[in-house]
């Protein structure tokens, strides 16, 4: 496999370090490749800089038609994308086919239209003597890093708004899941997007990633991943004051009031906690249930989790596949083991499985109760199929507990009382608050966080706020040599 796509061509990396892409369901080696290194990053940035002048001045319809062609090409290869995504990330093929790939194609179709709809403030004569015009212009070369949990979707979320707005981009996928990102780069070229507009460098984060984030010819950096790495990205970006966009960790509360539809809340908690085997920063990880419903909720969600089918991602009956790696499996198991030692109760799951599942990085759907609010398992991002359930009494207490975290990416509130739901959506500190559901996203609506979950938006036309800069143009309409305001500088001459 060739790790670099830059200037419209694929080529091997030049770091001298070989890496294997492992199927986490069975530890089989899918591909072996040589990491991209700093020279590859530099070449890709040079290609992006060279392509910028033409792409940034192209008519919006040109960018729109290229993105429409990209969507069509991806649709024709949808099954190939789904198979590759499942192989490298271990996610159930059902999820790849029905969520990741169609969502990515829809994103491309959406930004095809959005490329022709870059809006600014209406022209007007605000002081009577000048016409003001607002121009929304691209920033330049964007350096982006995407995570391993949704390799294709996150690549699309980085590439599409950037190039639709007229920027060029160098994208570094996670080194363990680069396959669909490299496929995307090839399809961008085949769709007519000019060479150098979309470039990909598959390399190690501390080497290729840091070289990209700190590169002097990169004007903006966009990163999706953990909060600690996000802080490092900000540190690197300060060297030449790059624009920064961060979508970081999450610890989403799932707030169930005592008038909620209990069956719906139980079903929603399972779906919201277990999508992508819990490797989703918007997953429902902390369920707070008002005390009258608490026992029934715990019983119901424990029963539903016990029915979850864990196994081969290629089997249509599989609900959750493996975690991304053995390292992640050990990390999730460590969280649960420490919580158990600290007095929490594991209601279901909580053990690395044996038998046939021992061949992969599997971990079962797990429900935990009796954990303390300040404990690690309640406060830290686990990134696995683990739901912690805690009780609350008053509405005030429930909302306070929901906000008691450094994160603020997503949340949900469950109630049949419109006034309760209005209060919840107003007071919960998160970039997305779902009411009586948890997880659904659409291309037309923004995604991004509060607090240590980062800042800036992916998807929707709101994402253009990240990838464009606003210019005010002021034009005199009087033709007078002497302007009225000149008297503030010198008297009549």
Note down, in words, how this protein is organized.
- By secondary structure, the chain is α/β, with parallel strands linked by helices.
- Helix content is 38%, strand content 20%.
- It has two domains: 4-248 and 453-473, Aldehyde Dehydrogenase, Chain A, domain 1 (3-Layer(aba) Sandwich); 252-435, Aldehyde Dehydrogenase, Chain A, domain 2.
- It has an eight-stranded mixed beta sheet, sandwiched between helices.
- Helix 4 (93-114) runs parallel beside helix 5 (151-164).
- The longest helix has 22 residues, at 93-114.
- It is globular and about 85 Å long.
- The mean pLDDT is 96.
Précis, in short:
This protein has 15 helices and 21 strands.
Radius of gyration: 25 Å
Low-confidence stretches: none
What is the CATH architecture annotation of the largest domain? 3-Layer(aba) Sandwich
Shape: globular
Overall SS class: alpha/beta
What fraction of residues sit in β-strands?
15-25%
**Class of the largest domain, according to the CATH hierarchy?**
Alpha Beta
Please name the CATH topology of the largest domain. Aldehyde Dehydrogenase, Chain A, domain 1
């Amino acid at each position: 496999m060739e790790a670099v796509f830059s200037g419209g061509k694929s080529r091997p990396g030049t770091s001298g370090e070989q890496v294997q892409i492992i199927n986490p369901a069975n530890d089989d080696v899918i591909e072996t490749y040589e990491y991209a290194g700093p020279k590859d990053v530099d070449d890709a940035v040079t290609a992006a800089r060279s392509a910028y002048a033409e792409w940034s001045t192209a008519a919006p319809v040109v960018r729109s038609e290229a993105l429409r062609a990209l969507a069509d090409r991806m649709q024709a290869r949808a099954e190939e994308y789904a198979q590759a995504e499942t192989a490298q990330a271990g996610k159930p093929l059902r999820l790849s086919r029905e969520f990741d790939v169609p969502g990515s194609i829809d994103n491309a179709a959406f930004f095809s239209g959005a490329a022709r709809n870059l809006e600014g403030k209406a022209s007007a004569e605000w002081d009577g003597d000048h016409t003001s015009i607002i121009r929304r212009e691209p920033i330049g070369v964007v350096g982006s890093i995407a995570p391993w949990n949704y390799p294709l979707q996150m690549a699309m979320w980085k590439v599409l708004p950037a190039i639709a707005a007229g920027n060029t981009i160098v994208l570094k996928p996670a080194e363990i899941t680069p396959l669909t990102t490299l496929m995307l780069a090839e399809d961008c070229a085949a769709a007519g997007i000019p060479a150098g507009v979309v470039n990909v460098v598959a390399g190690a984060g501390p080497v290729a990633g840091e070289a990209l984030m700190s590169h002097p010819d990169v004007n903006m950096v966009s990163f999706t991943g953990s909060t600690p790495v996000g802080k490092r990205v900000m540190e690197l970006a300060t060297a030449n004051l790059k624009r920064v966009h961060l979508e970081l960790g999450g610890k989403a509360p799932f707030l169930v009031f005592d008038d909620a539809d209990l069956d719906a809340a139980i079903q929603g908690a399972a779906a919201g906690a277990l999508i992508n085997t819990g490797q989703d920063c918007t997953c429902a990880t902390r369920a707070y249930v008002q005390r009258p419903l608490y026992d029934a909720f715990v019983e119901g969600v424990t029963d539903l989790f016990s029915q979850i089918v864990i196994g081969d991602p290629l089997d249509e009956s599989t609900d959750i596949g493996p975690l991304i790696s053995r390292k992640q499996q050990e990390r999730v198991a460590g969280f649960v083991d420490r919580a158990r030692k600290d007095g929490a109760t594991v209601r279901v799951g909580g053990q690395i499985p044996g038998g046939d599942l021992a061949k992969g990085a599997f971990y079962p759907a797990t429900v935990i109760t009796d954990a303390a609010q300040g404990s690690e398992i309640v406060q830290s991002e686990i990134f696995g199929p683990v739901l912690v359930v805690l009780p609350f009494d008053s509405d005030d207490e429930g909302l306070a507990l929901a906000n008691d975290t450094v994160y603020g990416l997503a949340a949900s509130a469950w109630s049949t009382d419109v006034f309760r739901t209005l209060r919840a959506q107003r007071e919960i500190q998160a970039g997305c608050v779902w009411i009586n559901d948890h997880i659904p996203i659409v291309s037309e609506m923004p995604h991004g966080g509060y607090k240590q979950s980062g800042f800036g938006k992916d998807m929707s036309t709101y994402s253009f706020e990240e990838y464009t800069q606003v210019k005010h143009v002021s034009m005199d309409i009087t033709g007078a040599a002497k302007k009225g305001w000149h008297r503030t500088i010198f008297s009549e001459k």
